[in-house]
Amino acid sequence: MSTRPASMRAETRIALAAVRTARAIADSRRGADEITSKGGIDLVTAADVACEDAIRAELARELPDAIVVGEERGGTPVAGRAYWLVDPICGTRPFASDVPLYCTNVALVEDGQVTVGAVAIGRSDEVCWAERGHGAWLESAAGVRRLHATAASDTVWFSGREARTADMVRAALVERRWYVWQFSSTLAYPYLAAGRIAGIVHGGASPVHTAAGALLAAEAGAVLSDLDGGAWGIDSDGLLAAATPELHAELRALAEKVARPVPVRGYDHLAITVCDVDRTVRFYCDVLGARILYEDEWRAGRLPIAMLQIGANRLNVHPAAAPAAPHASLPTPGSVDLCLRWDAPLDDAIALLARHGVAIVEGPVPRPAADGTWGRSIYFRDPDGNLLELLSTVAA
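^ thats the sequence. predicted structure below, dont judge the formating
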């Protein structure tokens, strides 16, 4: 059933006329093959410029004092005055490649807020618009209908060239929670408003590209924020939008997961508590080829613990009678389970333990390594009963 808003601002009518004019130029493909690089992978076609010029002409004819900030011709807002944001063809790469994934965006900013947005979807008869506080709407040959965001598609669109956005894409793919879409056009915003996709993660987004679509999405009931969960505004450096509060919370958790990576490289050393330090040192040196670090200082009593180098790692040996502070709450001999990588066939390790009279308590058994590969392991114990594992991914 076709419905219409009760009223429409004059500025909205002007914006709709402007995006329709620009879409007609883009859909004609005049100038699509005249491509100029803007640096990197950014490009502009003669059609982009023609579309922006047509929009500017429409705005100037109806609103002679209009201030316009455009993707191709530029412009600067004036403090205290309303201004227009114009993105003549958002999705220039798809447009230039004759792929119908592009749109035209026009937005009005008043007192720092987007109050009117109009979007014409390329190669279609659809135009969308929104006024702050009055809903989002779509008009096509089928009539006019109000837009409502929905998460039914389980589809999230990602865009952005920053490491954080790339990390979010990877995490989303690994989680296999959503269909992950990527295409270089803010066509995704009216898609969200219309319920065709469920969410948007847009890093490093310019308001020229996002302002009109963000208003559409918000007026269609979507939840908007910046990537850190703060209120989205015209100056925000990124945008996260979702059809439902639940999906927004999931996407926020995804953003938080990759936002501030903890700069931990790995383990530096492990400390064990033993009954007899000398006995333990002899075992690790004789059986596993450990090397005593700072031995003179330790033997002279200037170091309260023994430090052993085993391969690329260090093992600190604390006496149970006087463990060096600070130490674990319950420093207990025989409480450690430690896996060491063995860079040779596992049969060599079995032979080594046999020569030293060390009993194997389990194995060989298949086990996964920390790098994702699989190998075989054997288990045995040191003099205090700590469980030691030798894991080899080297074929016999």
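The two ends are 73 Å apart (CA to CA).
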